[in-house]
Amino acid sequence: MNLLCKAVSMALLSAPMAANAAYITTFTEGQTTTVAGATVFDFEGSLVKPGNYTGAGNVLDTSISGESAAPAGDTTNYYSVAWPQASGTGTFQADAGTSYNYFGLYWGSIDDYNTLSFYSNGSLLATITGKDVIASGTALGDQTAAGSNRYVNFLFDTTFDRIDFSTTQFAFESDNHAFATTSVPEPATLGLLGMGLLGAGLARRRRRQ
Question: What predicted TM-score, i.e. pTM, was given to this entire model?
């Protein structure tokens, strides 16, 4: 996938959902997107959330012990949900008439109680937790490891106009949210990739047994 040429890992997740959306997950080096022309919210310039963001959570410029940790190596402002509360949901809503099929974020100290939910016109497309994107062998919630502080990209076969960022504990920290509408692999390619990954997963499971 040439738009994400630095991808180091790829997975297709297509569980039964309201709209049966398929998507590809990739991981790229650095703290921001590699997709040319993407709209990026970097949360700089103010501790006030951008107008597209509502609900729980705030923009922070520092770590707060026991409550929120800036993503590893990130010395700029970042988005922390649901700070100052321990749990809650923050929402990104695209401008009226706008939708995207690509989203990227620098996800810090990835935890299994951090959840992304993608919607189109109010219909749920996909739900992803930190457990789905943390690197194998990395501890959940690690504030410094590269495997739990990584730039994650999602490319859908359909468009979304809303993302919910939810957490049930302190905190869901991220930065450099990127949005774009770009080309996607043909459905047959997505299906073949999914089958290949499923086969690889089953083979690993047999080896463990």
Answer: 0.83
